[in-house]
Amino acid sequence: MIVSAALLLGVSSLLSRVVGLFRDRVFTSLFGAGDTFDSFVVAFRIPDLIFNLVVIGALSAAFIPIFTEKMVTGKKGEEDAHRFALSILHLMGIGIGILSACFALFAPQVIPLIAPGFSGEKLDMTIMLSRIMALQPILLCISFVFSGILNSYKRFFAYALAPILYNFGIIAGAMYLVPILGVAGLGWGVVLGALLHAGVQFPSVLRVGFHWRPVLISSSKDLLNIWRMMLPRVFGLAAQQTNLFIVTIIGSGLLSGSIAAFHLANNVQYIPIGIFGIAFAQAAFPTLSEQFARKKRADFRHTITKSFRYIMFFVIPVSALFYLLRSQMIRVLFGHGAFNWADTTVTYETFGFLVISIFAQATIPLLTRAFYAQQNTKIPVLISLGSIALNTALAFPFARMYGIQGLAIAFSVATIVQLAVLLGILHIRLDGFDDKKVIISISKMVAATMVAAIATQLLKTPIAAIVDMQRFWGILTQLLGSFGGGIIIYILVCMLLRSDPRSCVKIPQN
């Protein structure tokens, strides 16, 4: 079940990321890495903060475990679970509606606080976009309650399709609404995307028997439980959002386009994280919650260990090849229209420092969900707070020395430390991870990656000699040829070392 679900989510994540990259290419082609793109990214910050703190805080940490528990052990099963979901939908909808309205009202006072380097027309444009985007959290609140229900039923198709349609909505705004409405069309594209995100999941929610009725509170015990589990997670998410606000606050005082460059680099490096890390974490979470509820401790530990190794099998080589081909990737993806070579350089340099921590970013979601499945949110939150403190301490001096690239260095260092601490504590709580197998399998992956990296580097020169590297198709040929060759070598070496997924990291069906 986990493998098939992870495959579906991984494929959908890949499609979503491809569409997201096309979205970014449309933006860079129209606006370059300049003031308009900077304004769009900053305008997203507060609506995204509201959504993450209230919706993600409740659903990722508390909704699925409690919903699943009611399905498995509740007196009335589905009826109790659906009543609980309605309570969350109504209460969160009211809360987010109030927060979004307040932000729209006070945007002129809030935006200068998070982008102190913005002024004049750039500031006005950011305020205008942020007010339109204040509608987004309300729609995504509804959508993510639907997502939580479908995940609990282990029905992932509509949930997997939602982010793809979300990106199509934003693209439609840039391509078709901007010519009509001006820059405001970017904001309305975000609203359209959020509406599509919810709409595509609605029929599937109806099919599992969920129907709206006027329920406000299922029980005080449920609310206390979700509040107990949600509150630490909210603080943890607030800490994580601090990373983005650090980029915004410091980046607004750097060269024009610095925020856009970090945003683009972060989106590209997140591709393998979404395809492998997030997909496996999301697919494993309902199973982990069920195993914990049924007190299957050995199965719980086994699921974490195998999922961790599976993620590492993919992200270790991909991150290495991303680093070696960073300039080609950025130029191929965004080198069009208003996006010039100066924009390319600052973006691929930032990207290079971010990919160093891909392995950590991809496995942290699985480890944190292992704690959430145990209905323990405090430990990962405290670790996250420590990571943010380290990131903040490093970001300011590094930005002074290295510009926007310094923020990428600080982020990667803090993320790797966060992974190390999470692993250490979870290792103690679960009495180990079958350490010998983990160490041997990851050592084989690293060895295969080193061989693949050498092959990739060797392939770049002969390919460059036979294509025109001043043109898109020449750069694309070098990128695909070198990357493809490196992946083939990695697979062959893994097979030689008996480190392929089937023999090394196969996850049992549950």
UniProtKB/TrEMBL annotation:
The keyword Membrane applies. The chain crosses the membrane at residues 49-67, 88-107, 127-149, 156-178, 184-206, 243-264, 270-288, 308-326, 346-367, 379-398, 404-426, 438-459, 471-497. GO terms for cellular component: plasma membrane. GO terms for biological process: lipid translocation; peptidoglycan biosynthetic process; regulation of cell shape. Its main location: membrane. Keywords: Cell membrane, Cell shape, Membrane, Peptidoglycan synthesis, Transmembrane, Transmembrane helix. The keyword Cytoplasm does not apply. InterPro entries: Lipid_II_flippase_MurJ/MviN, MurJ. GO terms for molecular function: lipid-linked peptidoglycan transporter activity. It holds the Pfam family MurJ. CDD domains: MATE_MurJ_like. It is found in: Cell membrane. It is a multi-pass membrane protein. This is Murein biosynthesis integral membrane protein MurJ. It comes from Candidatus Andersenbacteria bacterium RIFCSPHIGHO2_12_FULL_45_11b. The lineage of its organism: Bacteria, Candidatus Anderseniibacteriota.
